[in-house]
Design brief:
By secondary structure, this protein is mainly alpha-helical. 76% of the residues lie in helices and 2% in strands. The strands form 2 sheets. Strands 1-4 form a two-stranded antiparallel sheet. Strands 2-3 form a two-stranded antiparallel sheet. InterPro entries: ABC_transp_permease. It is found in: Cell membrane.
């Protein structure tokens, strides 16, 4: 009798059981990503119709990427901050301050622009160390530290810039205003390099998705159905090829900032999904006490999150200053709100622990399409702000309602 009772629990708990919750979580995450991507497609189609086809004109698509590169760069860093359970309100002011440093170093100190860019990245890292120290080692809430940083660095930007510093070197200005046009020649009106980059990106996406699917199967996890897999990837490949064709017809080909942003997306997607540092960020955001008990060095991880945010803010400053062609004390206003909104619209959880780089980028593109579409329609800037506010509120409300339903179902 006793022997029978002792063997029953083992028989009642077969090996596949623990994998089921993970599979369900992955399906929910995938459905959320489908929804975000579908929202982007729907918004693009809506404005394409409302603008009479002007939204997706080749030069407008190139401008869309150039104008919103700073949002993508900041959103990547902000994603890591929010996933860890923090917030950074200072990035807009940091962008303005470092933009002033860039302009002064090139125009007054006569530094070559590559050295000026390197200096900007070092300054960004130092600012990140400053804020990370207070958050990680002194225990001051990130909200307070970065609110102080927002005031501090905006004031410093006004002090060091004073008047607009223009006349920046042409090579520096080209970073955000030019592209790799004609480097491999043309086929008709199509830029060959842009076509090659687009095809390689499409093939690389399919190969990586197939490898991920094989890995899930090998570890006993149930991947999505084959039909849904090919429909999803077919849609994404079609979008990549469509925008490749559009950019190949533009006057600048592949924008330099698109190459920069694509590189950052690949690197940080790898960091968040495949490295110990990325797993530690998710662990801290999910349950900081449990992460600490599991051996995660919470202080060190939080410190490097803010150092990383400082470097990315410096990179966003390079892009913004290059785009404007001048150092401006008023630069970067509301940049932190754009980055935070992109993350939340892209599915990052308000409470931390959940978020993906791809989602943040899609959120940034949604914000960019809204900005450009409303501008083409000559909508008053005040109404543009109101509409973006409603979109942000709706995205966060949708996320919270979905989680409550998921909790009720569990």
């Amino acid at each position: 009798m006793t022997a029978s009772a002792s063997t029953t629990p083992a028989a009642a708990a077969p090996e596949p059981q623990p994998a089921a919750p993970k599979s369900a979580t992955q399906r929910a995450s995938a459905l959320r990503q489908y929804g975000i991507l579908g929202a982007l497609v729907a918004i693009v189609l809506l404005f394409q119709f409302l603008t009479g086809g002007r939204l997706l004109m080749p030069n407008n698509v190139a401008s869309l990427l150039q104008q919103n590169a700073y949002v993508m760069i900041l959103a990547i860093g902000m994603l890591m901050v929010i996933v860890a359970g923090h917030i950074d309100l200072s990035v807009g002011s940091v962008v303005a301050f470092i933009g002033g440093v860039l302009a002064i170093s090139m125009m007054q100190w006569n530094l070559p622009w590559p050295l000026a860019v390197l200096l900007a990245l070092v300054v960004g890292a130092l600012i990140g160390c400053w804020q990370g120290f207070w958050v990680a080692f002194m225990g001051v809430p990130a909200f307070i530290v970065t609110l102080a940083g927002m005031l501090l660095f905006r004031g410093l930007a006004i002090v060091i810039v004073g008047e607009t510093i223009a006349g920046l070197p042409a090579g520096f200005i080209a970073i955000s205003n030019r592209g790799a046009l004609g480097w491999l020649g043309y086929v008709g009106n199509l830029d060959v390099l842009t076509v090659v980059i687009g095809v390689v990106a499409a093939v690389g996406l399919v190969v990586s998705q197939l490898r991920n699917r094989a890995t899930m199967t090998r570890h006993g996890l149930a991947p999505e159905g084959a039909a849904m897999f090919w429909i999803r990837n077919g849609l994404i490949v079609a979008l990549i090829l469509f925008f490749t064709w559009t950019l190949a017809n533009s006057s600048i080909g592949t924008p330099f900032v698109l190459i920069l942003c694509a590189t950052l997306i690949l690197v940080y997607a790898f960091v968040m999904n495949r490295t110990v540092f990325g797993r530690h960020i998710y662990a801290i955001g999910g349950n900081v006490a449990a992460a600490r008990l599991s051996g995660v060095n919470v202080r060190q991880t939080n410190f490097w999150i803010f150092v990383n945010m400082g470097v990315l803010a410096a990179l966003a400053s390079v892009v913004t200053t290059s785009r404007a062609g001048a150092g401006i004390a008023a630069a970067g206003v509301n940049f932190e709100l754009d980055a935070i909104a992109a993350c939340f619209i892209g599915g990052t959880a308000v409470t931390g622990g959940i978020g993906r780089v791809s989602g943040a980028i899609i959120g940034a593109l949604i914000m960019g399409v809204l900005n450009m579409g409303l501008s083409i329609l000559s909508v008053d800037p005040a109404w543009q702000q109101a509409i973006k506010g409603l979109v942000l509120l709706g995205a966060v409300a949708f996320d919270l309602i979905s989680k409550r339903r998921g909790g009720a179902g569990a």
